[in-house]
Design goal:
elongated, about 350 residues, mainly beta, single chain
């Protein structure tokens, strides 16, 4: 087995050695190339820091005897004695709701990690990490709580990025919310933020250490569907009308499939995929349907069909995001009997 180093991650202000041979992209190493070493040499690594060395994160991965490589590289973290590593800002993603809103409080991975804080405690060197926005969304607006009016929000504009107020604790960051300009035709959006480690002295800005790679918040939209209905007589069969957005649409992608969540009351009738007169088969709960299948559903009413029934379904988009369940209501054309 071998270990292979990513030369791009090698520091410029220091040199990594294996058995006294510099790993620099030119020297042939024990693994037969300029980047590979034998697994037995992993304990023979050493590092010599140059003047001005701050820190380094060197990536490497394991490669077996068949040439298969680990798809998740490991990292060697180096820093001067008493030094500090920058935090790593997390990427995240979320979906707007039907009103076009996405509260950041719902993003579980919003925040950062820090090599100096392996347990990811919210404190870092005795102080909280802070965050700032680095790029704003284009298809919507971020809002922050109005400090002077409880429950009110203020829009965040480009000028805010250079404002001293553009500094948040993680809890304050989670108080922000995103609102899409046009939820109905939302094409997706994103914005970025960065974590800053205040270091040992939070009163000294020169002691701050900022992540060089901001985290990106990607915002999508789930597919949308609407409820629908159909009237038919007892003992008849009719194709269901998945039109006028009943079947769903996805503003930032496409509807990939559908799922049946509940079925009509069996005493009222049966839901079929395909016309039962020509070989259609009964639908079952949990069944996945293609966009073509959803247009080929039939409801066969029993002879005693007299009470409206319903079934639930949901659309699922090309990113696996489902809608909330929607209803389609088969109902009788006959008047409902009245009881004394």
């Amino acid at each position: 087995m071998f270990y292979e180093f990513d030369l791009v991650t090698l520091p410029t202000n220091g040199t990594l050695f294996v058995n006294g041979v510099a790993i620099n992209g030119s020297n042939i190493l024990s693994g037969g190339t300029a980047t590979r070493i034998l697994a037995s040499d992993i304990d023979e690594l050493s590092f010599t820091a140059a003047a001005g060395f701050t820190n380094a994160a060197i990536e490497y991965r394991a490669i077996d005897t068949y040439g298969a490589a680990d798809r998740t590289p490991a990292t060697i973290l180096l820093k001067p004695t008493g030094g500090n590593f920058p935090p790593d800002t997390n990427d995240e993603s979320g979906l707007i709701d039907e009103n076009g809103e996405l509260p950041l409080s719902g993003l579980a991975d919003l925040g950062s990690t820090d090599p100096d804080d392996p347990d990811n405690d919210p404190t870092d060197n005795g102080t909280d990490r802070i965050y700032k926005l680095t790029e704003l969304p284009l298809e919507g607006i971020l809002y922050r709580p109005d400090p002077d009016n409880a429950g009110e929000f203020l829009p965040i504009n480009e000028a805010f990025l250079n404002d001293p107020l553009n500094e948040f604790t993680l809890d304050e960051l989670k108080d922000l919310k995103y609102i899409a300009n046009d939820p109905t035709n939302f094409p997706g959006d994103e914005f970025s933020y960065v974590a800053i480690d205040p270091g040992a002295d939070p009163t000294d800005p020169a002691d701050d250490l900022e992540d060089a790679t901001p985290g990106v918040i990607t915002i999508g939209a789930p597919p949308t569907t609407t409820n629908g209905g159909i009237g038919l007589d007892p003992g008849t069969t009719k194709k269901l009308p998945f039109v006028n957005n009943i079947a769903g649409r996805d503003p930032d992608g496409s509807v990939a499939s559908y799922q049946i969540d509940t079925l009509p009351n069996s005493r009222q009738g049966t839901l079929y995929l395909g016309d039962p007169a020509t070989g259609g088969t009964p639908v079952f709960v949990g069944q996945s349907l293609s966009p073509a299948d959803i247009l080929n559903l039939f409801f066969s009413a029993n002879g005693s069909f007299e009470t409206p029934t319903e079934f639930k379904f949901r659309a699922i988009d090309d990113e696996g995001n489902p809608t909330s369940p929607r209803y389609l209501h088969p109902r009788t054309h006959q008047p409902s009997p009245r009881y004394p």
